Amino acid sequence: MFNYPQGYELIAGVDEVGRGPLVGAVVTAAVILDPKRPIDGLADSKKLTEKKRLALAEEIKQKALAWSLGRAEAEEIDELNILQASLLAMTRAVKSLKIQPHFVLVDGNKIPQDLDIPAQAIVKGDSLVAEISAASILAKVARDQEMEALDRQYPEYAFAQHKGYPTKLHLEKLAELGALPQHRRSFAPVRKALENSKKIREGK
Known about the structure:
The chain is an alpha/beta fold. The chain has helices spanning about 50-65, 75-80, 80-95, 125-130, 130-155, 160, 170-175, 190-200, and strands at about 10-15, 25-30, 65-70, 105, 120. The chain has a 5-stranded mixed sheet with strand order 3-2-1-4-5.
């Protein structure tokens, strides 16, 4: 059971999705729930079915006092590293909220440095705190939809199946087809695919 910080009226939960994939942005969400409009079934997005996530995402958007998405693109991930890019995307999500919270609860063990609001990091927060669970659901749905859009653009990579994570299928496609502009160059499997493509071009 999580003990909420006392004396703060508006509390936002923040979470990210997409630290592990080899392609695309890391996507974050920030949510301020309305205590007068509770939402049943909030949980870590990874533990919910896709159908349940989609239904909850719509309910969160309708009932929350405020919600927003943030992101850091593949280029920013390559420039900053994935942790710093995730924290930047979290800050962007919080700053995009139409109502600014008095306190922020962040999933994980790091607090974004650029937040000018009191905050607390909570390990496994997406399972313990309703606001963070809601944020994880919105971020997961948004990123999955981006991967489905990328799949329509590049069906040969099967992004709808693996969502950009380094599965056996994705690694096979990467080796066979090479890296796309959306791939994260700083991640080892992508770097390897780029090096192999360069060797082939140079006839080595």
